[in-house]
Structures are given as structure tokens and as C-alpha cells.
């Protein structure tokens, strides 16, 4: 089992979030909102002093496409055959096993555990299913979820319901063909398809909504009711006996011919497109812009209508209804109908308009008569009429939550912020016709206030913070590209800007971001690109000042504390970033780092990352540049110094950092290539273009290009396109020893890449890598291993003599990075610390015993680099320390002689290695420690252990989930403590990491023994004493490390287990005597 701890570094501005779906969990009261960018926000409803507070806790990162729907499911409920032994028990006990299932438009499904705080399952649906659009758990067993999928473009998710329906109708009428849909049943425990209900063209129009129907009096007969934008309904039967191999089954045209189709549209003059659909028991509600019609499920008999023209929802024709729903439980209503009551049906129903105004009705049906009464109203929002606004409502216990999404920039339509308000539902009956007073507003929440509090402890510096265009005059394109050092006075004045109609915040909205790590063991900088075209570089030099002072003079320490650097030049939003080493033209042995940036202004700019000076501007695209792809591992020259760019003009370009020109153009794609893979070993580029049409015969397309010739080699469509693209991903996984696919040193989100097992190709790597290294005409040493470290880069830029500096950090290049970095969303940087890798950094005795084995390299014909033995190419990089440590200083690339490295290791180098390991451990502890909980401990860590408080960064915590998913807490100790209180897995992982690293640090420096012991004692027992309601560590996790190969990890796991065992025992198993004994000891 792997123990990985995650630190999250947020930018100075909150992330954007436009809500496209929502779901609630009753116990504990939790709200989930899914956004158009794929992010999911976890909110907690907190009661305090008769007031309700809704606070954001964490961001759930598992999707890279708009969230189509969110639902609550129960993965542990029911039996494997799809039937529950006792349905009533499933419903009554569902709150204890409830989980969130999320689906996005690219087919990825995630199961998020509220009890554990992370993603339990992350899978992708097969391509033939299409893109999910709606989810609906089955009524009697919430373990199984019905998913409706369709094919085509999903830009309509950003529209309101009326605009969405009109868009879908227009597209279908223009195409003249019915849309293609798929309806499947998925097991939420495994996320596998257990039944295919339908696959083909529906007999009705564009899909609007679906519901699971249980026939009246026949609980064993289920069907899926699908309704289109015109009110037409189609029924699809469900087989109760689920087949585990159901994904091989699909509906046929013959099956579709016998499906029941009914028309629920009435002959009203106000007839129009359906806004929304709601179901409660055997009653359905069809909501239109100005009225709502109620019908029975069985025969679609019209029960009655409610007109909104005389209500505040449609006053003056300036607003219209956009949503409606029943506030009660669907299953509870079915049971209520069988009880003793004078009504056949009675339920509360809420309707709202596009400005946030809502009316709550009580609907009752008895003696063939529909009656309704207005119970309460919620006032509209106070935003200006011209402000773009999106509104959702969702009930949570006795409250009604209004979820607002506000577009706060007219120039950037993608900038949205959420705002949630809590309203008390009416608790008493009111006579018919009388309108109650307004619902009481109990509380509100947004995560902009979190940044206002968190940013006060961080020094935010930067130039103009306005979202719009900056007022600059560009006389000459190259001369206007200048790095900028902003004074603290100007920066502080700039930080006083507010976002329109928003709470106070500091910083600028981020459009792209990346973490620069290259082949180092630790990240060296974070780069932010902003919507106004600015670029900010924030370095981690402060954590490695000891290394700088060890190899250089006092001036290096001053450079480590230099202010943030800004690159100005783009006139549009910076959409993509990348960092790449480039061989210097002067000496041929010093690598300069360049920063690549693509923008909405259609340009690609190249910067010198060491000096922050501009190099050149490229104009290969006529539309915004969305992606920059770097050459993968083992790419031969000259292609190793090239990069790919992808633009909205549906073209891909290859540019060279040696010639600073565009060398290849790959045009002619039918749509924007959303996914691009570069196979550097074989020299091919795969461009995957998703289907952007909703026609039934439209297919996804894959273009394969030859990099050397620039010719198009092959075009694949449909299933063949997906299969070949997966093959490209597999090959790149094999070639890359770091195990990271194409997203290192780029702003590309790790969530965008294929979902694969982490160890899927690990066994085959050593064999494949040995063959690959022998078949190449170039050794990676000449292009990859001479990269300077964080401090070494500054040595190279200052022209310092090689012999006075420390050895290059490239000697530690290993099969996997010790600290993996990624940016799942713009402005969010994550650092994943692998405990095993950190503990084994310098565990090789040959590094310090002077026993570095002699290695002989034979120069390969036709290359300038020595060739390693194929049998030793898989060995530990630390064993090759002597062979690589001084390659930059002592080896001429033109030398043809056999090299002997036996005299490389020296005492000075050993001291530097130990010092670097100490700095790396201090860096890890500084970012992972929970500051401001025990102030005495914090002071001890700073003064004795020499930890650096990350005050220059907004640091939070996180938890890894299945297949690259992440749970990232928002800034502030309250959010991090909530993760401690809710997730025993997080508690175990973080405690084990902190105690192990603290004990390991004592072995490196005995001067910090007291601080290390205090840190270990804090996470072992004192933390639980200070905050008693935190979850005890999960004992199963600790037991798995009892026999760990590292003594410090083994002892830390056993100590934590013995301290947590008493707290982890469930209360029903604790006898009163045991509790008394525990209290006596405390």
C-alpha cells in the first residue's frame, strides 16, 4: 500500500464555478454543486445560534468536462442481483451509506464517499454509450443508477433551460435526423454496466428529462419514462434481473418499434417548449414558461393546471419560469398514498424564475379535483437586470437552498462565481388563496469570503488586477515584451480592487497555471497565467536557501528571497503554459529553461525563464491557442527541442526551440482536437476530434500524422479511433519512466488524460526501456540529464564556475518523482508527497561508504553520448550518482574515450546530498504541517527544525482518490479540520507521513531531535486531545505498514495504532468499565 499526502496551493483569487448540477445528502447535511469546468464543490450546512451557515469545504477533482448531473446513490445497498432483501431497510438506513455519483459529458463517472472524503471509484464509460446527460437511481435499490446518454456537442449545458431546449430543437430540425441516445443501468459499487435498456434513435424529440416509473400495484415492473422538449413521452422497460455482462446488450430497431410512446402536450394556446419535468409518486408535473400541468403517470390524465401569469414569477413579461420540483421524497409519497388520508395526493411544489424569485405551493388532489394554495414566496435577487444569472433550487431537510451563479465580467463570459442562500420552508398550513409572508432567510455562503480571510496572511503582489484589457501601447511587438518587477506600494494599491457584484478578494482570476518540476525531486516554481494576459512566476527558492548558501555567496540568499516575477506581453487571456529546457547555443553544455505561453490573442510567446526576458513571438494560429504539448521521454533530436500547439482553428503546429520557427503544420481536422498525443519514439502525433454533431451517423475522428514528413498517415473513425488513441496512451506510458502522461511542466490538467491503472505498465517497463535505449540513435543523457536544479539554474544564469557549485540534482532522476505536481484546474497546484520515495532518497549505503561501483560506458556509434549497458539501464539512479554527478563539469560531449568514474564521490558531495535530503524533508513538512493549531509547536519547528512557514502561499490540504482523483480542501484551518473530522483514511495517511518524516529527520540532524519528537507526539496523541472530534486513523491503513521496509515508518505505524485503537472502537462495543478506565487515564 502506498502512503501519499497531498498539499494544495491556491492562487490569490478564488476559482470560477458555474453550477450546472446539484445534489444534497441529509446526514450529515451536505450540498454538492457541479460546475461547467468539471469541478465539484462540497458544502456543509452548519447550525449555530438558530442560524444556518453554508460553508465550502473542499473541491472534488475527478472530471475535466462539464458536470452533466449529480445524484445520491448507495453503493453498499442491496444484493448483487439487483434486488434488496428488505427495501424498507435500504431506505431507512440509506443515509449511513450514501455517496455522491457524478457524471460529466466526456463519459467519466465518479463515486465520492462522504464518510471517507475521497473518490472511491473513477471509471470511463465505453465510447459506444455516448456522453452522460442525466442520472436517476432506481427506486427500490439505490445501488443501481440509470444513465441516459446522448451524442453531440454540449455547449447547451451553459444555457438556461428554455434556451437549452430551443437549441436542441433547432439542431435536430436542421439535421433532419433523430438524435441517437443510450440508456444503461450502472452498478455504483463497481461502475460497470449491468444492463443496456436502449441504444438507438428515439421515437420522440430531443431528450429533456427521465424518471423511473413503478407501475401502480406492480412493484416488480419498472420502466424508464423519457420525455422530450415537446412533452412527448416514451417508455423503456427495465429487466429486474441485472446481467453483469449487460454492456454487450443493446436495443435493436425491432425493440424500439414496440416501445410505448405518448403525447403529453395539451392544446393550450400557451403551448411551448417544456422547461422542466418533475415526478412525485404517480403524479408528474410539466412546467412551461407561464404555466404548469399535472398528470397521472399511468394514463396521463390531466389533473389540473397552475397559471403563473398572475403571480410574481412572470410580472410584466420581464421574467419567465425556468424550474420547478416537488419538495417531498418520491418514495415517501408512494407510501403516503396507501395511508389513511382524505387526500389521494398532497405534496409541496416549488417553482422559480430566471431572477431567483420562487413560489411554494401545496398541491392536493382528491375527488377528481386538483387544489393548490400558495404557502410562501422567496424574493428575487437584487442583481441588475443585465447581469447574467443562473438559478438552481434544491431542498435539504426543512430548508430550501437557492444556488446562484453570477457572471461577474462582461468581457470574459467564462468568469462565474457561486452564491448559496438558505431559506426556511413553511411549517404550518395556510388557508387557500392567501399568500404567506416571505420565507425567512437563515444564512448564506460563498468561497470568496474564504479568500478574503486567507489572503490577509499572504503578501499578494502584482500589476493591474482588472479583469478586462490593460491600457498599454504596443509600438513594437518585441520591444513591448518586457519582464516587470512591481514595487510593493503599487502592488498593495492594486490589491484593493473588487470584483463586480462580489465580495472582497485579492488577486486576479487565473486562466491557466502549471508547476515546474522538470527532472528534479522537488518543484521549483508555480506559473500563473491570467485573463488579462499577465504571467506570474512564483518560486520555491526560500525552502532551499541552505543549498544556495552552501555553494554560493550571500548574494544567492538574497536572490532566493526575490519578489515574484511578472511577464507582460499578451493582450488576451493566457490559456496554456509549458516549460522546456533548451540547449544553449554558446557552450553546448548549459541548459536554459524557456517558458512557453499560448493566448487568446492567437500568439505563442517564448520567454527565458531564468532571466524572465522575452525571446520571440510565433503566429502559427489564427484562433486562440488552447494547448501546448511537449516532446515525451526518449524523443530523439531535433524533435526533442520542439513542441506542439493546438488552436481553436482546428490545426496543430510543430515549432522548434532551436530555430525559433514553425516547422510543421497539421491542418484539416473536422473540429477542435480536444486530445493530442505525441509518440516521440515512433515519431507520430495522434489528434483526437470528438464528434461535435448530434446526428446519429456522426462519429469521433482520429488523425495520425508523421512528424518527420508532416504527412497525414491515417484517419480512423468511431471505435477504431478510440482503440488507436488508447494504444498511443499505452505506448507513452511505457516510454515515460515517471509514470506521468504528457502533463509534466505543462498547464494541461492531469484529469484530461486516459484513466489507467498506475501500475498497469510497470512490469513491462524495464524490458521495454532496455530495448528502446539500445535502439535509439541518441542517449537521454545529452538532452535530459544535464538539467540544472532550482539553485543550479541560478548558478548557470550567473555564469558561476562549475567547480564551485553543488552537483546537479539530475543525478537523482528516478523512475518516479518523489513529489509529483499537477494543476487539475487553473489556479490550483497540487503536490503529492510519496512517503516511501522520501524515506528511500539516500538510503543506498554505497553513496556514503565510498563504494560506488565502477561503470564503463561505451560510446554508441553516431552519437555524442555514451551508451549504457541494457542490463543496467533499469538500476537505481542513486547507484549512478558517481557516473552522472559531474558529467556536466568533466565530460566533453565530443570525447570518444572510455570514461572511468571511480574517483567522483567525495566527502563534499556526500555532505551536499545529506543537506539536500534535509532540505527536501523540511520542504515536505513545511507544506504538510497543520499550522496555527499548536502555536508552541509552530515556534519550535521554526526555530529548531528550521521549517519555513508557507506564508507566501495559500496552502491547504488534500486527499488522493481512485485513478488520479483528488479532494482538495479550501484555504483556512476550518476546511482542513473538516477533512480530519470526516475521513479516517486522511487521518491515517497524514499522521503516518508526519510522524515518519519527523523521526527520519532526527537521523539526519540530532540538533532538531526535540522538535521532531514534539511533532511526532502532536500527531500521535496531542492533536486528538486538542480537537476531540477528529476521526481516529483507520486501523487497516496503519496495520498495512507494520512490516514496512523502513524502520521509521514501521515504528510510526505501530505507535499511531496503539494510540488510536481505543478511539477507533465503536461505542456499542465499549463497555462502561472500559470508558471509565479511559476517562481515568485522561
UniProtKB/TrEMBL annotation:
<keyword id="KW-0677">Repeat</keyword>
<dbReference type="InterPro" id="IPR015943">
    <property type="entry name" value="WD40/YVTN_repeat-like_dom_sf"/>
</dbReference>
<feature type="repeat" description="WD">
    <location>
        <begin position="567"/>
        <end position="617"/>
    </location>
</feature>
<keyword id="KW-0853">WD repeat</keyword>
<feature type="compositionally biased region" description="Polar residues">
    <location>
        <begin position="776"/>
        <end position="794"/>
    </location>
</feature>
<dbReference type="Pfam" id="PF00400">
    <property type="entry name" value="WD40"/>
</dbReference>
<dbReference type="InterPro" id="IPR001680">
    <property type="entry name" value="WD40_rpt"/>
</dbReference>
<protein>
    <submittedName>
        <fullName>Transducin/WD40 repeat-like superfamily protein</fullName>
    </submittedName>
</protein>
<dbReference type="InterPro" id="IPR019775">
    <property type="entry name" value="WD40_repeat_CS"/>
</dbReference>
<feature type="region of interest" description="Disordered">
    <location>
        <begin position="769"/>
        <end position="804"/>
    </location>
</feature>
<dbReference type="InterPro" id="IPR049916">
    <property type="entry name" value="WDR72-like"/>
</dbReference>
<dbReference type="InterPro" id="IPR036322">
    <property type="entry name" value="WD40_repeat_dom_sf"/>
</dbReference>
Amino acid at each position: 500500500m502506498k502512503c501519499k499526502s497531498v498539499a494544495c496551493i491556491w492562487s490569490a483569487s478564488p476559482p470560477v464555478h458555474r453550477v450546472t448540477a446539484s445534489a444534497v445528502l441529509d446526514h450529515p447535511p451536505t450540498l454538492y454543486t457541479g460546475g461547467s469546468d468539471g469541478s465539484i464543490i462540497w458544502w456543509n450546512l452548519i447550525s449555530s445560534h438558530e442560524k444556518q451557515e453554508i460553508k465550502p469545504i473542499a473541491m472534488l477533482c475527478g472530471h475535466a468536462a462539464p458536470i452533466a448531473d449529480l445524484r445520491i446513490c448507495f453503493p453498499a445497498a442491496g444484493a448483487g442481483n439487483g434486488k434488496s432483501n428488505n427495501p424498507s431497510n435500504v431506505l431507512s438506513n440509506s443515509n449511513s451509506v450514501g455517496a455522491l455519483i457524478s457524471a460529466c459529458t466526456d463519459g467519466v463517472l465518479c463515486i465520492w464517499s462522504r464518510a471517507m472524503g475521497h473518490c472511491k471509484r473513477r471509471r470511463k464509460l465505453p465510447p459506444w454509450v455516448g456522453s452522460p446527460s442525466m442520472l436517476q437511481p432506481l427506486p427500490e435499490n439505490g445501488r443501481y443508477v440509470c444513465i441516459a446518454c446522448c451524442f453531440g456537442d454540449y455547449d447547451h449545458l451553459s444555457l438556461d433551460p428554455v434556451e437549452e431546449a430551443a437549441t436542441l430543437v433547432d439542431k435536430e430540425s436542421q439535421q433532419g435526423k433523430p438524435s441517437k441516445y443510450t440508456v444503461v443501468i450502472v452498478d455504483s459499487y463497481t461502475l460497470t454496466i449491468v444492463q443496456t435498456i436502449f441504444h438507438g434513435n428515439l421515437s420522440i424529440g430531443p431528450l429533456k428529462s427521465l424518471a423511473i416509473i413503478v407501475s401502480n400495484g406492480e412493484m416488480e415492473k419498472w420502466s424508464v419514462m423519457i420525455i422530450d422538449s415537446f412533452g412527448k413521452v416514451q417508455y423503456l422497460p427495465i429487466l429486474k434481473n441485472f446481467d453483469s455482462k449487460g454492456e454487450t446488450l443493446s436495443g435493436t430497431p425491432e425493440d424500439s418499434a414496440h416501445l410505448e410512446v405518448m403525447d403529453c402536450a395539451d392544446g393550450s394556446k400557451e403551448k411551448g417548449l417544456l422547461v422542466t419535468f418533475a415526478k412525485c409518486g404517480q403524479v408528474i408535473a410539466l412546467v412551461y414558461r407561464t404555466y404548469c400541468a399535472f398528470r397521472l403517470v399511468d394514463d396521463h390524465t390531466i389533473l389540473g393546471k397552475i397559471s403563473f401569469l398572475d403571480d410574481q414569477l412572470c410580472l410584466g413579461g420581464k421574467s419567465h419560469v425556468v424550474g420547478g420540483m416537488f419538495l417531498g421524497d418520491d418514495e415517501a409519497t408512494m407510501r403516503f398514498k396507501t395511508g389513511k388520508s382524505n387526500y389521494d395526493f398532497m405534496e409541496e411544489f416549488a417553482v422559480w424564475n430566471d431572477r431567483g424569485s420562487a413560489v411554494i405551493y401545496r398541491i392536493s388532489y382528491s375527488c377528481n379535483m386538483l387544489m393548490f394554495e400558495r404557502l410562501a414566496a422567496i424574493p428575487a435577487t437584487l442583481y441588475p437586470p443585465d447581469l447574467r444569472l443562473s438559478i438552481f433550487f434544491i431542498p435539504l431537510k426543512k430548508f430550501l437552498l437557492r444556488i446562484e451563479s453570477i457572471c461577474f465580467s462582461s468581457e470574459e463570459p467564462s468568469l462565474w462565481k457561486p452564491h448559496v442562500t438558505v431559506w426556511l420552508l413553511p411549517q404550518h398550513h395556510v388557508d387557500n388563496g392567501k399568500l404567506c409572508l416571505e420565507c425567512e432567510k437563515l444564512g448564506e455562503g460563498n468561497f470568496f469570503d474564504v479568500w478574503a480571510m486567507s489572503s490577509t496572511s499572504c503578501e499578494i503582489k502584482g500589476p493591474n488586477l482588472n479583469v478586462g484589457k490593460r491600457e498599454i501601447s504596443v509600438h513594437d511587438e518585441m520591444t513591448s515584451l518586457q519582464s516587470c518587477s512591481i514595487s510593493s506600494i503599487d502592488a498593495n494599491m492594486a490589491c484593493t480592487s473588487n470584483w463586480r457584484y462580489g465580495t472582497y478578494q485579492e488577486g486576479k482570476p487565473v486562466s491557466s497555471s502549471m508547476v515546474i518540476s522538470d527532472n528534479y525531486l522537488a518543484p521549483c516554481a508555480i506559473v500563473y497565467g491570467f485573463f488579462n494576459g499577465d504571467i506570474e512566476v512564483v518560486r520555491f527558492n526560500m525552502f532551499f536557501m541552505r543549498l544556495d548558501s552552501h555553494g554560493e555567496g550571500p548574494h544567492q540568499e538574497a536572490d532566493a528571497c526575490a519578489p515574484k516575477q511578472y511577464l507582460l506581453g499578451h493582450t488576451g487571456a493566457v490559456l496554456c503554459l509549458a516549460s522546456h529546457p533548451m540547449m544553449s547555443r554558446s557552450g553546448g553544455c548549459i541548459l536554459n529553461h524557456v517558458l512557453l505561453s499560448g493566448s487568446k490573442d492567437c500568439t505563442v510567446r517564448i520567454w527565458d525563464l531564468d532571466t524572465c526576458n522575452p525571446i520571440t513571438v510565433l503566429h502559427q494560429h489564427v484562433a486562440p491557442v488552447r494547448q501546448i504539448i511537449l516532446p515525451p521521454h526518449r524523443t530523439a533530436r531535433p524533435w526533442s527541442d520542439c513542441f506542439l500547439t493546438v488552436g481553436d482553428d482546428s490545426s496543430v503546429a510543430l515549432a522548434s526551440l532551436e530555430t525559433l520557427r514553425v516547422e510543421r503544420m497539421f491542418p484539416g481536422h473536422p473540429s477542435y482536437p480536444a486530445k493530442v498525443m505525441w509518440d516521440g519514439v515512433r515519431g507520430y502525433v495522434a489528434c483526437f476530434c470528438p464528434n461535435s454533431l448530434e446526428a446519429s451517423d456522426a462519429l469521433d475522428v482520429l488523425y495520425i500524422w508523421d512528424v518527420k514528413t508532416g504527412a497525414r498517415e491515417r484517419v480512423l473513425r468511431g471505435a477504431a479511433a478510440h482503440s488507436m488513441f488508447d494504444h498511443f496512451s499505452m505506448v507513452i506510458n511505457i516510454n515515460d519512466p515517471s509514470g506521468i502522461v504528457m502533463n509534466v511542466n505543462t498547464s494541461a490538467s492531469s484529469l484530461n488524460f486516459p484513466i489507467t491503472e498506475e501500475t498497469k505498465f510497470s512490469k513491462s517497463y524495464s524490458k521495454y526501456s532496455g530495448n528502446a535505449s539500445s535502439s535509439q540513435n541518441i542517449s537521454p543523457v545529452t538532452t535530459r540529464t544535464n538539467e540544472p536544479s532550482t539553485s543550479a539554474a541560478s548558478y548557470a544564469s550567473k555564469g558561476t564556475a562549475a567547480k564551485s557549485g553543488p552537483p546537479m540534482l539530475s543525478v537523482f532522476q528516478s523512475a518516479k518523482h518523489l513529489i509529483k505536481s499537477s494543476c487539475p484546474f487553473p489556479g490550483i497546484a497540487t503536490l503529492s508527497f510519496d512517503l516511501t520515495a522520501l524515506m528511500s532518497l539516500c538510503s543506498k549505503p554505497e553513496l556514503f561508504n565510498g563504494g560506488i561501483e565502477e561503470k564503463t560506458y561505451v560510446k554508441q556509434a553516431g552519437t555524442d553520448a555514451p551508451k549504457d549497458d541494457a542490463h543496467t539501464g533499469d538500476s537505481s539512479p542513486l547507484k549512478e550518482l558517481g557516473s552522472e554527478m559531474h558529467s556536466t563539469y568533466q565530460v566533453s560531449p565530443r570525447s570518444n574515450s572510455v570514461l572511468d568514474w571511480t574517483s567522483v564521490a567525495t566527502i563534499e558531495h556526500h555532505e551536499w546530498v545529506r543537506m539536500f535530503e534535509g532540505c527536501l524533508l523540511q520542504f515536505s513538512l513545511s507544506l504538510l504541517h497543520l499550522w496555527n493549531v499548536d502555536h508552541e509547536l509552530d515556534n519550535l519547528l521554526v526555530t529548531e527544525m528550521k521549517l519555513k512557514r508557507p506564508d507566501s502561499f495559500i496552502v491547504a490540504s488534500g486527499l488522493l482518490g481512485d485513478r488520479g482523483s483528488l479532494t482538495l480542501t479550501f484555504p483556512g484551518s476550518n476546511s482542513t479540520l473538516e477533512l480530519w473530522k470526516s475521513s479516517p483514511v486522511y487521518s491515517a495517511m497524514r499522521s503516518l507521513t508526519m510522524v515518519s518524516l519527523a523521526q527520519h529527520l532526527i537521523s539526519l540532524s540530532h540538533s532538531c531531535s526535540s522538535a521532531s519528537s514534539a511533532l511526532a507526539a502532536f500527531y500521535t496523541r496531542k492533536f486528538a486531545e486538542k480537537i476531540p472530534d477528529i476521526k481516529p486513523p483507520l486501523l487497516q491503513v496503519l496495520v498495512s505498514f507494520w512490516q514496512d521496509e523502513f524502520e521509521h515508518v514501521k515504528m510510526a505505524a505501530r505507535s499511531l495504532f496503539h494510540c488510536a485503537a481505543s478511539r477507533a472502537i465503536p461505542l456499542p462495543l465499549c463497555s462502561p468499565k472500559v470508558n471509565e478506565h479511559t476517562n481515568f487515564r485522561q
